[in-house]
Amino acid sequence: MDTWIILVIVGVLVVLAIAFFASRRARERQLEGKREEARELRSTAEAQAQRADERASLAEEQAEQARRERAEADEQLREADEVDPDVDEDDRR
Question: What pTM did the predictor assign?
Fold first, then answer.
């Protein structure tokens, strides 16, 4: 009878050990899955940030071009006012 008890205890310990290692392995797989998901999210975020930086740079270039064009247009208006005989000195820009 004592042998059966020892065998049952050993069997239970083996089953518990297998369950422990299986749950640990499942947890490691789950963590690796989350790490992979985090890598993908970071990669996507970096690509999106790069595109945003490129668009911001382009927007700054366009804004600078618009300022230059506005200054040129203002200069042309000032020259037109100087040439126009119908514009009084007080009305000039």
Answer: 0.57
